[in-house]
TrEMBL record, chain A:
Gene: pstA
Stated name of the protein: Phosphate transport system permease protein PstA
Organism whose genome encodes this protein: Streptomyces pyxinicus
Pfam families: BPD_transp_1
Keywords: Cell membrane, Membrane, Phosphate transport, Transmembrane, Transmembrane helix, Transport
Transmembrane segments: 21-42, 48-67, 79-103, 142-161, 173-197, 203-220, 252-273, 322-344
Subcellular location: Cell membrane
Automatic annotation (TrEMBL), chain B:
UniProt KW keywords: ATP-binding, Nucleotide-binding, Translocase, Transport
Matching InterPro entries: AAA+_ATPase (IPR003593), ABC_transporter-like_ATP-bd (IPR003439), ABC_transporter-like_CS (IPR017871), P-loop_NTPase (IPR027417), PstB-like (IPR005670)
Gene: pstB
Gene Ontology molecular-function annotations: ATP binding
Organismal lineage: Bacteria, Bacillati, Actinomycetota, Actinomycetes, Kitasatosporales
Name by which UniProt lists this protein: Phosphate ABC transporter ATP-binding protein PstB
PANTHER family: ABC TRANSPORTER I FAMILY MEMBER 17
Residue ranges of every copy of the ABC transporter domain listed in the record: 5-247
CDD domains reported for this sequence: ABC_PstB_phosphate_transporter (cd03260)
Alphabetized Pfam families for the sequence: ABC_tran
Species assigned in the record: Streptomyces pyxinicus
NCBIfam families: 3a0107s01c2 (TIGR00972)
Length: 353, 258
Protein backbone atom coordinates (compact mmCIF):
# COMPACT_ATOMS: atom_id res chain seq x y z
CA UNK A 1 0.00 0.00 0.00
CA UNK A 2 1.56 3.21 -1.10
CA UNK A 3 1.00 6.33 0.94
CA UNK A 4 1.24 8.49 -2.18
CA UNK A 5 -2.50 8.11 -2.56
CA UNK A 6 -2.92 10.88 -5.10
CA UNK A 7 -1.14 8.96 -7.84
CA UNK A 8 -2.00 5.41 -6.81
CA UNK A 9 -5.67 4.83 -7.62
CA UNK A 10 -5.96 1.68 -5.52
CA UNK A 11 -4.72 3.37 -2.37
CA UNK A 12 -8.15 4.74 -1.42
CA UNK A 13 -11.34 2.69 -1.37
CA UNK A 14 -13.29 5.83 -2.30
CA UNK A 15 -11.28 6.43 -5.44
CA UNK A 16 -11.76 4.23 -8.47
CA UNK A 17 -10.31 4.15 -11.95
CA UNK A 18 -12.33 6.28 -14.33
CA UNK A 19 -12.41 6.73 -18.07
CA UNK A 20 -11.58 10.18 -19.46
CA UNK A 21 -14.54 12.40 -20.31
CA UNK A 22 -14.02 12.06 -24.06
CA UNK A 23 -14.56 8.28 -23.93
CA UNK A 24 -18.24 8.26 -25.03
CA UNK A 25 -17.38 10.36 -28.08
CA UNK A 26 -14.48 8.09 -28.96
CA UNK A 27 -16.66 5.00 -28.57
CA UNK A 28 -19.39 6.63 -30.67
CA UNK A 29 -16.93 7.52 -33.43
CA UNK A 30 -15.38 4.05 -33.29
CA UNK A 31 -18.71 2.24 -33.40
CA UNK A 32 -19.94 4.37 -36.32
CA UNK A 33 -16.75 3.65 -38.27
CA UNK A 34 -16.93 -0.03 -37.39
CA UNK A 35 -20.64 -0.16 -38.19
CA UNK A 36 -20.06 1.28 -41.65
CA UNK A 37 -17.13 -1.08 -42.14
CA UNK A 38 -19.09 -4.19 -41.17
CA UNK A 39 -22.07 -3.13 -43.29
CA UNK A 40 -19.87 -2.48 -46.33
CA UNK A 41 -18.15 -5.84 -45.89
CA UNK A 42 -21.46 -7.66 -45.51
CA UNK A 43 -22.91 -5.85 -48.51
CA UNK A 44 -25.73 -4.08 -46.64
CA UNK A 45 -27.02 -1.06 -48.53
CA UNK A 46 -29.61 0.43 -46.17
CA UNK A 47 -28.27 3.25 -44.02
CA UNK A 48 -30.83 2.25 -41.39
CA UNK A 49 -29.06 -1.10 -41.03
CA UNK A 50 -25.74 0.72 -40.73
CA UNK A 51 -27.11 2.98 -38.02
CA UNK A 52 -28.61 0.05 -36.08
CA UNK A 53 -25.31 -1.83 -36.15
CA UNK A 54 -23.45 1.30 -35.06
CA UNK A 55 -25.93 1.86 -32.22
CA UNK A 56 -25.60 -1.72 -31.03
CA UNK A 57 -21.81 -1.51 -31.17
CA UNK A 58 -21.94 1.73 -29.17
CA UNK A 59 -23.96 0.16 -26.35
CA UNK A 60 -21.92 -3.07 -26.28
CA UNK A 61 -18.61 -1.22 -26.64
CA UNK A 62 -19.46 1.14 -23.82
CA UNK A 63 -20.26 -1.79 -21.55
CA UNK A 64 -17.17 -3.75 -22.47
CA UNK A 65 -14.72 -0.91 -22.08
CA UNK A 66 -16.30 0.48 -18.92
CA UNK A 67 -16.54 -2.96 -17.32
CA UNK A 68 -12.81 -3.58 -17.92
CA UNK A 69 -11.61 -0.21 -16.66
CA UNK A 70 -14.18 1.03 -14.16
CA UNK A 71 -16.06 -2.01 -12.92
CA UNK A 72 -19.52 -3.52 -13.36
CA UNK A 73 -21.61 -0.89 -11.61
CA UNK A 74 -20.12 2.01 -13.53
CA UNK A 75 -20.46 -0.03 -16.72
CA UNK A 76 -24.18 -0.53 -16.12
CA UNK A 77 -24.53 3.18 -15.44
CA UNK A 78 -22.77 3.99 -18.70
CA UNK A 79 -24.90 1.50 -20.62
CA UNK A 80 -28.08 3.10 -19.28
CA UNK A 81 -26.74 6.49 -20.30
CA UNK A 82 -25.81 5.23 -23.76
CA UNK A 83 -29.30 3.72 -24.20
CA UNK A 84 -30.81 7.09 -23.41
CA UNK A 85 -28.55 8.72 -25.97
CA UNK A 86 -29.31 6.14 -28.66
CA UNK A 87 -33.05 6.56 -28.01
CA UNK A 88 -32.68 10.33 -28.18
CA UNK A 89 -30.86 10.15 -31.52
CA UNK A 90 -33.41 7.67 -32.89
CA UNK A 91 -36.19 10.07 -31.89
CA UNK A 92 -34.53 13.21 -33.21
CA UNK A 93 -33.28 11.92 -36.56
CA UNK A 94 -36.71 11.59 -38.21
CA UNK A 95 -37.86 14.90 -36.75
CA UNK A 96 -34.88 16.82 -38.01
CA UNK A 97 -34.89 15.11 -41.39
CA UNK A 98 -38.63 15.78 -41.78
CA UNK A 99 -38.18 19.48 -41.14
CA UNK A 100 -35.05 19.52 -43.31
CA UNK A 101 -36.80 17.96 -46.29
CA UNK A 102 -39.90 20.10 -45.91
CA UNK A 103 -37.89 23.31 -45.70
CA UNK A 104 -35.53 22.35 -48.52
CA UNK A 105 -38.35 21.48 -50.90
CA UNK A 106 -40.89 23.95 -49.62
CA UNK A 107 -38.92 27.16 -50.09
CA UNK A 108 -38.77 26.68 -53.88
CA UNK A 109 -42.12 28.27 -54.64
CA UNK A 110 -42.95 29.78 -51.26
CA UNK A 111 -43.14 33.53 -51.71
CA UNK A 112 -45.60 36.37 -51.27
CA UNK A 113 -47.28 35.60 -54.58
CA UNK A 114 -47.81 31.99 -53.52
CA UNK A 115 -49.37 33.07 -50.23
CA UNK A 116 -51.73 35.61 -51.78
CA UNK A 117 -53.10 33.80 -54.83
CA UNK A 118 -55.47 30.90 -55.35
CA UNK A 119 -55.46 28.02 -57.85
CA UNK A 120 -58.54 29.43 -59.58
CA UNK A 121 -57.15 29.84 -63.09
CA UNK A 122 -54.21 27.45 -62.82
CA UNK A 123 -54.53 23.80 -63.76
CA UNK A 124 -53.04 21.43 -61.18
CA UNK A 125 -50.35 20.28 -63.60
CA UNK A 126 -49.11 23.79 -64.47
CA UNK A 127 -46.72 26.00 -62.46
CA UNK A 128 -48.01 29.14 -60.74
CA UNK A 129 -50.97 29.60 -58.46
CA UNK A 130 -50.91 29.65 -54.70
CA UNK A 131 -52.53 28.66 -51.42
CA UNK A 132 -54.44 31.79 -50.40
CA UNK A 133 -57.78 29.98 -50.71
CA UNK A 134 -56.45 27.06 -48.65
CA UNK A 135 -55.09 29.34 -45.92
CA UNK A 136 -58.43 31.15 -45.72
CA UNK A 137 -60.26 27.83 -45.58
CA UNK A 138 -57.95 26.37 -42.92
CA UNK A 139 -58.12 29.48 -40.74
CA UNK A 140 -61.89 29.66 -40.91
CA UNK A 141 -62.52 25.95 -40.36
CA UNK A 142 -59.98 25.58 -37.56
CA UNK A 143 -61.05 28.88 -36.03
CA UNK A 144 -64.72 27.90 -35.98
CA UNK A 145 -63.86 24.44 -34.67
CA UNK A 146 -61.86 26.06 -31.84
CA UNK A 147 -64.68 28.47 -31.04
CA UNK A 148 -66.99 25.46 -30.65
CA UNK A 149 -64.62 22.83 -29.26
CA UNK A 150 -62.44 24.75 -26.81
CA UNK A 151 -65.19 26.25 -24.60
CA UNK A 152 -67.14 22.99 -24.47
CA UNK A 153 -63.94 21.09 -23.67
CA UNK A 154 -62.83 23.51 -20.96
CA UNK A 155 -66.30 23.61 -19.38
CA UNK A 156 -66.53 19.82 -19.42
CA UNK A 157 -63.16 19.61 -17.68
CA UNK A 158 -64.31 22.15 -15.08
CA UNK A 159 -67.40 20.06 -14.47
CA UNK A 160 -65.35 16.87 -14.10
CA UNK A 161 -62.79 18.35 -11.73
CA UNK A 162 -64.82 20.82 -9.68
CA UNK A 163 -68.33 19.43 -9.60
CA UNK A 164 -68.40 15.92 -11.04
CA UNK A 165 -69.34 13.22 -8.56
CA UNK A 166 -70.85 9.82 -9.04
CA UNK A 167 -72.20 8.14 -12.13
CA UNK A 168 -72.61 11.10 -14.47
CA UNK A 169 -68.98 12.14 -14.02
CA UNK A 170 -67.80 8.57 -14.59
CA UNK A 171 -69.91 8.31 -17.72
CA UNK A 172 -68.56 11.62 -19.04
CA UNK A 173 -64.97 10.52 -18.36
CA UNK A 174 -65.63 7.25 -20.14
CA UNK A 175 -67.11 8.89 -23.21
CA UNK A 176 -64.30 11.42 -23.36
CA UNK A 177 -61.87 8.50 -23.37
CA UNK A 178 -63.82 6.85 -26.15
CA UNK A 179 -63.92 10.10 -28.11
CA UNK A 180 -60.14 10.42 -27.86
CA UNK A 181 -59.89 7.26 -29.89
CA UNK A 182 -62.33 8.24 -32.65
CA UNK A 183 -60.55 8.10 -36.02
CA UNK A 184 -60.90 11.40 -37.84
CA UNK A 185 -62.60 9.75 -40.81
CA UNK A 186 -65.35 8.46 -38.51
CA UNK A 187 -66.01 11.94 -37.16
CA UNK A 188 -66.19 13.06 -40.78
CA UNK A 189 -68.63 10.29 -41.68
CA UNK A 190 -70.82 11.16 -38.72
CA UNK A 191 -71.25 14.75 -39.87
CA UNK A 192 -71.59 13.56 -43.48
CA UNK A 193 -74.50 11.33 -42.51
CA UNK A 194 -76.24 14.35 -40.96
CA UNK A 195 -75.55 16.38 -44.10
CA UNK A 196 -77.05 13.64 -46.25
CA UNK A 197 -80.17 13.54 -44.10
CA UNK A 198 -80.66 17.28 -44.64
CA UNK A 199 -79.50 17.06 -48.28
CA UNK A 200 -76.73 19.63 -47.89
CA UNK A 201 -73.82 20.37 -50.21
CA UNK A 202 -70.27 20.39 -48.77
CA UNK A 203 -69.38 23.57 -46.89
CA UNK A 204 -66.62 24.75 -44.52
CA UNK A 205 -68.62 24.78 -41.30
CA UNK A 206 -69.45 21.08 -41.66
CA UNK A 207 -65.71 20.43 -41.54
CA UNK A 208 -65.47 22.66 -38.47
CA UNK A 209 -68.04 20.51 -36.69
CA UNK A 210 -66.09 17.33 -37.38
CA UNK A 211 -62.86 19.02 -36.28
CA UNK A 212 -64.57 20.25 -33.11
CA UNK A 213 -65.54 16.65 -32.31
CA UNK A 214 -61.91 15.64 -32.70
CA UNK A 215 -60.68 18.56 -30.64
CA UNK A 216 -62.98 18.35 -27.64
CA UNK A 217 -61.60 15.22 -25.93
CA UNK A 218 -58.03 16.51 -26.25
CA UNK A 219 -59.02 19.80 -24.65
CA UNK A 220 -60.96 18.03 -21.89
CA UNK A 221 -58.05 15.75 -21.02
CA UNK A 222 -55.38 18.45 -20.91
CA UNK A 223 -57.57 20.95 -19.08
CA UNK A 224 -58.56 18.31 -16.54
CA UNK A 225 -54.91 17.59 -15.75
CA UNK A 226 -54.17 21.31 -15.41
CA UNK A 227 -57.11 21.91 -13.07
CA UNK A 228 -56.07 18.96 -10.93
CA UNK A 229 -52.67 20.60 -10.50
CA UNK A 230 -54.23 23.60 -8.76
CA UNK A 231 -53.68 22.99 -5.03
CA UNK A 232 -56.85 22.37 -3.07
CA UNK A 233 -55.55 24.82 -0.48
CA UNK A 234 -56.14 27.69 -2.89
CA UNK A 235 -59.76 26.67 -3.40
CA UNK A 236 -60.25 26.37 0.35
CA UNK A 237 -58.55 29.71 0.98
CA UNK A 238 -60.93 31.35 -1.43
CA UNK A 239 -64.02 29.55 -0.09
CA UNK A 240 -63.01 30.48 3.45
CA UNK A 241 -63.08 34.14 2.45
CA UNK A 242 -66.75 33.75 1.70
CA UNK A 243 -66.29 33.57 -2.06
CA UNK A 244 -68.94 31.49 -3.87
CA UNK A 245 -67.69 28.38 -5.62
CA UNK A 246 -68.28 29.62 -9.15
CA UNK A 247 -66.32 32.79 -8.45
CA UNK A 248 -63.56 30.74 -6.84
CA UNK A 249 -63.29 28.71 -10.02
CA UNK A 250 -63.43 31.78 -12.24
CA UNK A 251 -61.09 34.04 -10.29
CA UNK A 252 -58.70 31.67 -8.51
CA UNK A 253 -58.64 28.23 -10.13
CA UNK A 254 -58.74 29.27 -13.79
CA UNK A 255 -56.20 32.13 -13.53
CA UNK A 256 -53.80 29.79 -11.72
CA UNK A 257 -54.05 27.18 -14.46
CA UNK A 258 -54.71 29.38 -17.51
CA UNK A 259 -51.19 28.93 -18.86
CA UNK A 260 -51.48 25.18 -19.00
CA UNK A 261 -55.03 25.29 -20.33
CA UNK A 262 -53.95 27.59 -23.16
CA UNK A 263 -51.11 25.25 -24.04
CA UNK A 264 -53.53 22.34 -24.12
CA UNK A 265 -55.98 24.18 -26.37
CA UNK A 266 -53.19 25.25 -28.71
CA UNK A 267 -51.91 21.70 -28.99
CA UNK A 268 -55.44 20.53 -29.78
CA UNK A 269 -55.68 23.23 -32.46
CA UNK A 270 -52.36 22.08 -33.87
CA UNK A 271 -53.71 18.54 -34.00
CA UNK A 272 -56.87 19.40 -35.94
CA UNK A 273 -55.08 21.84 -38.25
CA UNK A 274 -53.45 18.87 -39.97
CA UNK A 275 -56.59 16.73 -40.31
CA UNK A 276 -57.34 15.79 -43.91
CA UNK A 277 -59.99 13.08 -43.85
CA UNK A 278 -63.02 14.96 -42.49
CA UNK A 279 -62.17 17.99 -44.62
CA UNK A 280 -62.01 15.80 -47.69
CA UNK A 281 -65.47 14.42 -46.95
CA UNK A 282 -67.22 17.54 -45.77
CA UNK A 283 -65.51 20.55 -47.29
CA UNK A 284 -64.65 18.86 -50.56
CA UNK A 285 -61.98 21.26 -51.81
CA UNK A 286 -62.25 24.25 -54.11
CA UNK A 287 -59.57 25.91 -56.23
CA UNK A 288 -61.34 29.26 -55.97
CA UNK A 289 -61.35 31.63 -53.03
CA UNK A 290 -64.44 31.10 -50.90
CA UNK A 291 -64.51 33.37 -47.85
CA UNK A 292 -67.84 32.08 -46.61
CA UNK A 293 -67.47 28.94 -44.46
CA UNK A 294 -71.25 28.49 -44.30
CA UNK A 295 -71.87 28.06 -47.99
CA UNK A 296 -70.07 26.25 -50.78
CA UNK A 297 -66.98 24.07 -50.91
CA UNK A 298 -63.76 25.43 -49.45
CA UNK A 299 -60.12 24.39 -49.53
CA UNK A 300 -57.82 23.77 -46.59
CA UNK A 301 -54.07 23.32 -46.29
CA UNK A 302 -53.90 19.56 -45.63
CA UNK A 303 -56.53 18.93 -48.29
CA UNK A 304 -54.62 21.15 -50.72
CA UNK A 305 -51.43 19.16 -50.08
CA UNK A 306 -53.24 15.90 -50.69
CA UNK A 307 -54.92 17.08 -53.88
CA UNK A 308 -51.73 18.55 -55.32
CA UNK A 309 -50.10 15.14 -54.93
CA UNK A 310 -53.08 13.10 -56.06
CA UNK A 311 -54.54 15.07 -58.94
CA UNK A 312 -51.50 16.38 -60.73
CA UNK A 313 -50.29 13.29 -62.59
CA UNK A 314 -46.75 13.63 -61.32
CA UNK A 315 -46.28 17.26 -62.32
CA UNK A 316 -43.19 18.78 -60.65
CA UNK A 317 -44.91 22.14 -60.22
CA UNK A 318 -47.71 20.52 -58.20
CA UNK A 319 -45.20 18.68 -55.99
CA UNK A 320 -43.39 21.94 -55.29
CA UNK A 321 -46.67 23.58 -54.33
CA UNK A 322 -47.53 20.68 -52.06
CA UNK A 323 -44.19 20.97 -50.25
CA UNK A 324 -44.58 24.72 -49.93
CA UNK A 325 -48.07 24.23 -48.48
CA UNK A 326 -46.65 21.63 -46.05
CA UNK A 327 -44.05 24.13 -44.93
CA UNK A 328 -46.77 26.74 -44.42
CA UNK A 329 -48.80 24.29 -42.35
CA UNK A 330 -45.80 23.37 -40.18
CA UNK A 331 -44.99 27.04 -39.72
CA UNK A 332 -48.61 27.72 -38.73
CA UNK A 333 -48.56 24.98 -36.10
CA UNK A 334 -45.13 26.07 -34.88
CA UNK A 335 -46.31 29.67 -34.49
CA UNK A 336 -49.33 28.43 -32.53
CA UNK A 337 -47.06 26.47 -30.21
CA UNK A 338 -44.80 29.47 -29.70
CA UNK A 339 -47.83 31.62 -28.91
CA UNK A 340 -49.01 28.97 -26.43
CA UNK A 341 -45.62 28.91 -24.74
CA UNK A 342 -45.57 32.67 -24.60
CA UNK A 343 -48.99 32.78 -22.98
CA UNK A 344 -48.06 30.01 -20.56
CA UNK A 345 -44.95 31.89 -19.47
CA UNK A 346 -46.76 35.21 -19.28
CA UNK A 347 -49.62 33.82 -17.21
CA UNK A 348 -47.60 31.43 -15.09
CA UNK A 349 -47.95 31.95 -11.31
CA UNK A 350 -45.34 34.47 -10.32
CA UNK A 351 -42.52 33.52 -8.02
CA UNK A 352 -40.29 36.60 -8.28
CA UNK A 353 -39.60 38.94 -5.40
CA UNK B 1 -68.59 42.93 16.23
CA UNK B 2 -67.04 39.77 17.60
CA UNK B 3 -69.61 37.05 18.09
CA UNK B 4 -70.11 34.20 20.50
CA UNK B 5 -70.14 30.60 19.28
CA UNK B 6 -72.33 28.01 20.97
CA UNK B 7 -71.84 24.43 19.86
CA UNK B 8 -74.16 21.71 21.05
CA UNK B 9 -74.16 18.01 20.27
CA UNK B 10 -72.00 18.33 17.15
CA UNK B 11 -71.02 15.17 15.29
CA UNK B 12 -69.11 15.23 12.01
CA UNK B 13 -68.62 12.48 9.44
CA UNK B 14 -66.37 11.77 6.49
CA UNK B 15 -68.65 9.50 4.48
CA UNK B 16 -69.50 6.73 6.92
CA UNK B 17 -66.54 7.44 9.18
CA UNK B 18 -67.45 9.38 12.30
CA UNK B 19 -64.60 11.84 12.89
CA UNK B 20 -65.85 13.69 15.97
CA UNK B 21 -68.73 12.91 18.25
CA UNK B 22 -71.08 14.91 20.40
CA UNK B 23 -69.07 18.05 21.01
CA UNK B 24 -70.58 20.93 22.98
CA UNK B 25 -68.78 24.10 24.00
CA UNK B 26 -69.07 27.85 24.16
CA UNK B 27 -66.50 30.20 22.66
CA UNK B 28 -66.62 33.65 24.21
CA UNK B 29 -66.37 36.74 22.01
CA UNK B 30 -63.17 38.80 22.10
CA UNK B 31 -61.15 35.92 23.48
CA UNK B 32 -58.70 33.34 22.23
CA UNK B 33 -59.69 29.70 22.54
CA UNK B 34 -57.04 27.08 21.85
CA UNK B 35 -57.71 23.48 20.79
CA UNK B 36 -55.04 20.97 21.79
CA UNK B 37 -54.88 17.22 21.48
CA UNK B 38 -53.06 14.42 19.68
CA UNK B 39 -53.00 14.16 15.88
CA UNK B 40 -56.15 12.73 14.33
CA UNK B 41 -58.38 13.59 17.28
CA UNK B 42 -60.57 15.87 15.18
CA UNK B 43 -59.43 19.35 16.24
CA UNK B 44 -59.11 20.55 12.65
CA UNK B 45 -62.32 18.81 11.62
CA UNK B 46 -64.16 20.51 14.45
CA UNK B 47 -62.63 23.86 13.51
CA UNK B 48 -63.78 23.41 9.93
CA UNK B 49 -67.33 22.69 11.03
CA UNK B 50 -67.43 26.17 12.59
CA UNK B 51 -67.45 27.89 9.19
CA UNK B 52 -68.97 25.08 7.16
CA UNK B 53 -65.69 24.25 5.44
CA UNK B 54 -66.07 20.65 6.56
CA UNK B 55 -68.73 19.98 3.93
CA UNK B 56 -66.35 21.13 1.18
CA UNK B 57 -64.54 17.82 1.63
CA UNK B 58 -66.29 15.10 -0.41
CA UNK B 59 -68.48 13.05 1.92
CA UNK B 60 -68.27 15.56 4.76
CA UNK B 61 -71.48 16.10 6.76
CA UNK B 62 -72.44 17.39 10.14
CA UNK B 63 -75.12 16.78 12.76
CA UNK B 64 -75.82 19.10 15.67
CA UNK B 65 -76.00 22.81 16.20
CA UNK B 66 -73.51 25.66 15.89
CA UNK B 67 -75.01 28.93 17.07
CA UNK B 68 -73.28 32.13 16.01
CA UNK B 69 -74.78 34.52 18.56
CA UNK B 70 -78.31 33.20 18.11
CA UNK B 71 -78.29 31.89 14.58
CA UNK B 72 -77.79 28.20 13.79
CA UNK B 73 -75.13 27.89 11.08
CA UNK B 74 -76.63 24.56 10.05
CA UNK B 75 -80.22 25.79 10.09
CA UNK B 76 -82.38 25.65 7.00
CA UNK B 77 -81.87 28.41 4.49
CA UNK B 78 -78.42 29.33 5.81
CA UNK B 79 -76.01 30.13 2.97
CA UNK B 80 -72.58 28.58 3.63
CA UNK B 81 -70.97 31.38 1.61
CA UNK B 82 -72.50 33.98 3.93
CA UNK B 83 -71.33 31.96 6.94
CA UNK B 84 -67.75 32.01 5.69
CA UNK B 85 -67.87 35.78 5.34
CA UNK B 86 -68.69 35.98 9.03
CA UNK B 87 -66.25 33.28 10.11
CA UNK B 88 -62.84 33.65 8.48
CA UNK B 89 -60.10 31.06 8.40
CA UNK B 90 -56.31 30.88 8.32
CA UNK B 91 -54.75 27.59 7.25
CA UNK B 92 -51.81 25.54 8.39
CA UNK B 93 -49.67 26.24 5.34
CA UNK B 94 -49.51 29.79 4.02
CA UNK B 95 -51.51 29.81 0.78
CA UNK B 96 -51.48 33.20 -0.91
CA UNK B 97 -53.05 33.21 -4.37
CA UNK B 98 -50.07 32.68 -6.71
CA UNK B 99 -51.43 34.73 -9.59
CA UNK B 100 -52.08 37.81 -7.47
CA UNK B 101 -49.90 40.60 -6.12
CA UNK B 102 -49.67 41.33 -2.40
CA UNK B 103 -52.28 44.07 -2.80
CA UNK B 104 -54.61 41.83 -4.80
CA UNK B 105 -54.24 39.03 -2.27
CA UNK B 106 -55.45 41.25 0.55
CA UNK B 107 -58.16 42.74 -1.65
CA UNK B 108 -59.17 39.29 -2.94
CA UNK B 109 -61.96 38.72 -0.43
CA UNK B 110 -63.64 42.03 -1.22
CA UNK B 111 -63.01 41.87 -4.96
CA UNK B 112 -64.17 38.31 -5.35
CA UNK B 113 -67.28 39.02 -3.35
CA UNK B 114 -67.96 41.91 -5.65
CA UNK B 115 -69.35 44.34 -3.07
CA UNK B 116 -66.81 47.08 -2.51
CA UNK B 117 -66.13 50.67 -3.45
CA UNK B 118 -62.93 51.30 -5.37
CA UNK B 119 -62.02 54.25 -3.17
CA UNK B 120 -62.26 52.09 -0.06
CA UNK B 121 -60.02 49.35 -1.37
CA UNK B 122 -56.71 51.11 -0.72
CA UNK B 123 -57.75 51.94 2.83
CA UNK B 124 -58.95 48.42 3.54
CA UNK B 125 -55.72 46.88 2.24
CA UNK B 126 -53.58 49.27 4.28
CA UNK B 127 -55.67 48.74 7.39
CA UNK B 128 -55.59 44.95 7.02
CA UNK B 129 -51.86 44.80 6.38
CA UNK B 130 -51.28 47.06 9.39
CA UNK B 131 -53.60 44.84 11.38
CA UNK B 132 -51.47 41.85 10.40
CA UNK B 133 -48.23 43.72 11.27
CA UNK B 134 -47.05 43.37 7.68
CA UNK B 135 -47.55 46.90 6.34
CA UNK B 136 -44.04 48.19 7.04
CA UNK B 137 -42.42 45.20 5.37
CA UNK B 138 -44.45 45.25 2.15
CA UNK B 139 -45.69 48.82 1.66
CA UNK B 140 -43.03 49.47 -1.03
CA UNK B 141 -43.80 46.34 -3.00
CA UNK B 142 -47.54 45.92 -2.93
CA UNK B 143 -47.55 45.06 -6.63
CA UNK B 144 -45.05 42.23 -6.30
CA UNK B 145 -46.37 38.65 -6.15
CA UNK B 146 -47.34 37.41 -2.72
CA UNK B 147 -45.45 34.16 -3.22
CA UNK B 148 -42.16 36.08 -3.12
CA UNK B 149 -42.54 36.74 0.61
CA UNK B 150 -40.99 34.57 3.31
CA UNK B 151 -43.12 31.88 4.93
CA UNK B 152 -43.86 33.98 8.01
CA UNK B 153 -44.72 37.00 5.90
CA UNK B 154 -46.95 34.86 3.68
CA UNK B 155 -48.83 33.61 6.72
CA UNK B 156 -49.35 37.18 7.94
CA UNK B 157 -50.47 38.05 4.41
CA UNK B 158 -53.06 35.29 4.69
CA UNK B 159 -54.17 36.69 8.04
CA UNK B 160 -54.46 40.15 6.46
CA UNK B 161 -56.48 38.60 3.66
CA UNK B 162 -58.78 36.94 6.17
CA UNK B 163 -59.37 40.05 8.30
CA UNK B 164 -59.86 42.30 5.25
CA UNK B 165 -63.41 41.00 4.85
CA UNK B 166 -64.13 41.95 8.49
CA UNK B 167 -65.24 38.57 9.81
CA UNK B 168 -66.75 38.24 13.28
CA UNK B 169 -64.73 35.14 14.12
CA UNK B 170 -61.26 34.08 12.99
CA UNK B 171 -60.38 30.39 12.90
CA UNK B 172 -56.70 29.43 12.77
CA UNK B 173 -55.64 25.90 11.94
CA UNK B 174 -52.11 25.46 13.28
CA UNK B 175 -51.07 28.81 11.81
CA UNK B 176 -47.48 28.62 13.09
CA UNK B 177 -46.59 24.98 12.49
CA UNK B 178 -44.75 25.78 9.24
CA UNK B 179 -42.95 28.81 10.67
CA UNK B 180 -39.73 29.53 12.54
CA UNK B 181 -39.79 30.81 16.15
CA UNK B 182 -39.39 34.47 15.19
CA UNK B 183 -42.29 34.39 12.72
CA UNK B 184 -44.26 32.41 15.30
CA UNK B 185 -43.65 35.15 17.86
CA UNK B 186 -44.81 37.76 15.35
CA UNK B 187 -48.03 35.85 14.77
CA UNK B 188 -48.61 35.21 18.47
CA UNK B 189 -48.26 38.94 19.14
CA UNK B 190 -50.67 39.54 16.33
CA UNK B 191 -53.20 37.13 17.83
CA UNK B 192 -53.00 39.12 21.06
CA UNK B 193 -53.89 42.28 19.16
CA UNK B 194 -56.58 40.71 17.02
CA UNK B 195 -58.54 39.39 19.97
CA UNK B 196 -59.55 42.98 20.75
CA UNK B 197 -61.66 42.86 17.60
CA UNK B 198 -62.39 39.22 16.79
CA UNK B 199 -63.33 35.98 18.41
CA UNK B 200 -60.33 33.75 17.78
CA UNK B 201 -60.14 29.98 17.76
CA UNK B 202 -56.72 28.44 17.23
CA UNK B 203 -55.70 24.83 16.76
CA UNK B 204 -52.16 24.13 17.89
CA UNK B 205 -49.84 21.23 18.62
CA UNK B 206 -47.61 23.48 20.63
CA UNK B 207 -48.78 23.52 24.23
CA UNK B 208 -46.54 26.43 25.16
CA UNK B 209 -48.22 28.35 22.39
CA UNK B 210 -51.66 27.46 23.71
CA UNK B 211 -50.55 28.58 27.18
CA UNK B 212 -49.09 31.83 25.82
CA UNK B 213 -51.87 33.04 23.57
CA UNK B 214 -55.17 31.59 24.75
CA UNK B 215 -57.69 32.54 27.39
CA UNK B 216 -59.45 29.20 27.31
CA UNK B 217 -58.16 25.81 26.20
CA UNK B 218 -60.07 22.78 24.98
CA UNK B 219 -58.48 19.34 25.10
CA UNK B 220 -59.58 16.77 22.51
CA UNK B 221 -58.76 13.09 22.54
CA UNK B 222 -59.85 9.86 20.95
CA UNK B 223 -60.38 6.58 22.73
CA UNK B 224 -58.52 4.54 20.12
CA UNK B 225 -57.47 4.73 16.49
CA UNK B 226 -60.60 4.61 14.33
CA UNK B 227 -62.79 5.90 17.15
CA UNK B 228 -64.30 9.38 16.83
CA UNK B 229 -62.57 12.27 18.60
CA UNK B 230 -64.23 13.78 21.64
CA UNK B 231 -63.93 16.93 23.66
CA UNK B 232 -62.41 15.90 26.98
CA UNK B 233 -62.63 19.23 28.71
CA UNK B 234 -62.62 22.97 28.15
CA UNK B 235 -61.61 25.43 30.83
CA UNK B 236 -59.58 28.56 31.50
CA UNK B 237 -56.11 28.06 30.10
CA UNK B 238 -54.48 28.66 33.45
CA UNK B 239 -56.56 25.96 35.06
CA UNK B 240 -56.03 23.46 32.23
CA UNK B 241 -52.28 23.82 32.50
CA UNK B 242 -52.10 23.88 36.30
CA UNK B 243 -54.90 21.78 37.63
CA UNK B 244 -57.02 20.08 34.98
CA UNK B 245 -60.10 18.27 36.17
CA UNK B 246 -59.57 15.20 33.96
CA UNK B 247 -56.61 12.87 34.37
CA UNK B 248 -56.19 12.40 30.57
CA UNK B 249 -55.62 16.12 30.13
CA UNK B 250 -52.92 16.18 32.73
CA UNK B 251 -51.28 13.12 31.19
CA UNK B 252 -51.24 14.75 27.77
CA UNK B 253 -49.98 18.10 28.98
CA UNK B 254 -47.24 16.60 31.11
CA UNK B 255 -46.16 14.23 28.35
CA UNK B 256 -47.39 11.02 29.97
CA UNK B 257 -49.54 10.31 27.00
CA UNK B 258 -50.84 6.89 26.18
Amino acid sequence: MSTAAVTDKRASSLRGASLPTWTPWAIAAGSIALGIGISAAAGLHSSIQWALIAGLLFVLGTYGIAARVEGRRQARDRVATSFVWVAFVVAVVPLVSLIWVTVARGVKVLDLYFLTHSMGVVADTEPGGGIYHAIIGSLEQVGLATVIGAPIGVLTAIYLVEYGRGRLAKAVTFFVDVMTGIPSIVAGLFILSLMLIFKMEPFGFAGSLALAILMMPVVVRSTEEMLKLVPNELREASLALGVPKWRTILKVVLPTSIGGITTGVMLAVARIAGETAPVLLLVFGNPFINNNPFEGAQASLPLYIYQQFANSAGSGAAYDRAWAASLTLIAFVMILNLVARGIARWKAPKTGR
Amino acid sequence: MAKRIDVSGLTAYYGSHKAIEDISMTVEPRSVTAFIGPSGCGKSTFLRTLNRMHEVTPGGRVEGKVLLDDEDLYGTGIDPVAVRREVGMVFQRPNPFPTMSIFDNVAAGLRLNGNYKKSELNDVVEKSLKGANLWNEVKDRLNKPGSGLSGGQQQRLCIARAIAVEPKVLLMDEPCSALDPISTLAIEDLIGELKERFTIVIVTHNMQQAARVSDRTAFFNLAAVGQPGRLIEIDDTERIFSNPSVQATEDYISGRFG
